[in-house]
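To start, one record:
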Amino acid sequence: MTTPIQAEVLLPTQELRNDLPFYTKTLGLRLDSIFPADDPSVASFSGHGLRIRIEKGADVPPGKIRILTDDPDGFADGARALVAPNGTQIEIASLSPTVDQPQTQHEFAVRRLRDEAPWVIGRAGMHYRDLIPSRLGGSIIASHIRIPDGGPVPDMVHYHTVGFQLIFCYRGWVDVLYEDQGDLIRLHAGDCVTQPPGIRHRVVEASANIEVIEIGVPAEHVTTIDHEMTLPNGKGDPMREWDGQRFVHHLKDGAVWQPFRIPGFTARDTGISDGTKGVAGIQVVRTDGQTPPPSKHDADIHFTFVMEGSMTLTAEGQDPRDLQPGDAFVIPPGMVAQYTNCSPDLELLEAALRGDFATILLD
């Protein structure tokens, strides 16, 4: 028989009788034990997933307790911050993380791989390279991610509180499990998926030198581990929506190439604009050998990653930039720009928010 193990937080007090009504009536904790009977100096409480021991004269700081609830107005008479008689600070916060989308701080930005942008080690041992250092005021994060050794990935079932998230397989392959999407999904180079807000998923295994491009909106968002769900969990409903977005799995093989929004290019649309109801649009773009005209757009965020080949980016008020594979750039709305000197093998990954933006061609 396994003996249960419990943990509790120790807090000090100068006079226990002053704390009893606050912790039981104001905070709604249950009094579990109190002693000695004739002059109580120690009491234990439990509730809201917490165990507390308050001890008279304990040589510890008063501490701070965060209570999470989705009904803060109905807790402690709507107070957001309180101080207990023993000096412990109480903070009332939201139980469920929410998406707070900052206003985009528009800028023209170019990030080049040859400038040796630093790689940092992030979650599950993955290497991250930031493709938009300013993150446009926190409105977006675009990461170039690699796993040098490949093999099994020490990941857990988790989900993100986001407005939009894309995983595009740039090199190699990666195996991923998604909630209600059946068995293992293998993404090959050129394939991509969206991760709708709250969808549970887990990275399982990757090829050596796997590289992906991950885009998340906003830049800072909460990742929550789901210790209860096991994946795969069945096929589920392929038309299910998470916060109005469907899971989209785009396959490079069999994709249809069509004229791009700018003459001189063709593109394969990933279907992500439809799947997100216009929240974001993702396209893979190739040159058709013609010189494209200058143009401008009205997208709030317009990000491009150079996957193959080379080109020169010219934009009003900026020096021309020669770009190669691994480089990325952001063009703000209303700025006139032109792609020139495009090599025959040029291939771009374009991400726009919203996905139903307009482009004006300038001859």
